[in-house]
């Protein structure tokens, strides 16, 4: 009888130990799940905050770019006509070397050059003027220079037209643009002094 009671007590203790073990394991698993859920919530919150910060940065960057573009446009619109002409003239003059290079390319195909000289015939047919340099009279010398300029003028005109100096005489257009540039620069200097005096 005593042996039976001892066996019952031992069985009861073993059952209690098993129940305690199950309870402890369940509690541990529940705590682990709670900790994991808390960690996931923390991570999600951190990612959401980071995305908000990034979005705010993108918005601020876009606003800054828009303000910069508006400021540039306002500055361009505020330019005086003289300043606009000055900038256009600078850009046109800048492309003259490239236009000259393109205009000179046909000359590369010339295989030979033949020069026919009339000697001092023009001087002999002149009004008795004294010979100039190279045995030519001043009238003959001036005539040769005018002929040389007349032969080269179409090339010069074409270069200036490609550079944007149009009109009946591109050379006059270039000189007029240069005069406009000088007056525009003086006007800009005067405006700058006035601005400083206002401040």
- What are the segments in which pLDDT stays under 50 over at least 5 consecutive residues? 120-133, 185-199
- The portion of residues assigned to helices is over 70%
Number of helices: 6
Overall morphology: rod-shaped
Count structural domains. Answer: 2
Q: Please give the radius of gyration in angstroms.
A: 47 Å
Q: Whole-number average pLDDT?
A: 70
Keywords, please?
2 domains, mainly alpha, 199 residues, 79% helix, single chain, 6 helices, disordered C terminus
Descriptive overview:
This protein starts with a helix and ends with a helix. Residues 120-133 and 185-199 have low confidence and may be disordered. It folds into 2 domains: 1-78; 80-109 and 136-198, no CATH class. Helices cover 79% and strands 0% of the residues. It is rod-shaped and about 155 Å long. With 199 residues, the protein is mainly α. It is built from 6 helices and no strands.
Describe the secondary structure blueprint for this structure.
Blueprint: H1 2-77, H2 81-94, H3 96-104, H4 121-124, H5 138-162, H6 170-198
Helix pairs in contact: 2-6, 3-5
In short:
The protein is an all-alpha fold. The chain folds into two domains: 1-78; 80-109 and 136-198, no CATH class.
């Amino acid at each position: 009888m005593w042996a039976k009671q001892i066996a019952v007590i031992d069985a009861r203790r073993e059952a209690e130990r098993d129940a305690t073990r199950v309870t402890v394991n369940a509690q541990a698993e529940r705590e682990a799940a709670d900790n994991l859920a808390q960690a996931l919530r923390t991570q999600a919150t951190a990612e959401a905050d980071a995305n908000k910060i990034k979005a705010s940065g993108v918005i601020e960057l876009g606003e800054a770019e828009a303000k910069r573009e508006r400021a540039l446009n306002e500055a361009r619109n505020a330019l005086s006509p003289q300043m606009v002409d000055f900038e256009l003239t600078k850009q046109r003059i800048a492309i003259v070397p490239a236009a000259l290079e393109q205009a000179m390319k046909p000359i590369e195909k010339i295989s030979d050059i033949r020069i026919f000289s009339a000697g001092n015939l023009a001087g002999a047919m002149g009004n008795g003027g004294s010979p100039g340099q190279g045995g030519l009279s001043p009238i003959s010398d001036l005539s040769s220079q005018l002929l040389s300029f007349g032969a080269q003028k179409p090339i010069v005109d074409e270069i200036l037209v490609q550079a944007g100096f149009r009109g009946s005489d591109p050379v006059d257009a270039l000189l007029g643009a240069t005069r406009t540039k000088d007056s525009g620069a003086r006007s800009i200097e005067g405006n700058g002094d006035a601005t400083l005096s206002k401040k």
